Amino acid sequence: MRYTIEEGGRLNNFAIEPKVYQAQPWTRQQKVRAALVVVGGLLLVAGLVAIAIGVS
Fold it and tell me: What does the alpha-carbon distance between residue 2 and residue 5 come to, in Å, rounded to a whole number?
C-alpha cells in the first residue's frame, strides 16, 4: 500500500487505483437490453402516474 508520512508522523494512505481501460462499443444484445429497461421504466412511471391520478 502506498503511503506518505506527514510532519506529525501521521500516515497518509492513498487508494489503489484500478487499471484504466478503453470502453468497447455495445453489442446488439446489450442495446436491446438497454432499450427494454428504458421502455419498462417508462411504463412503470406511466402506470404510477395513472394510479396517482386515479386515486386523487
Answer: 10
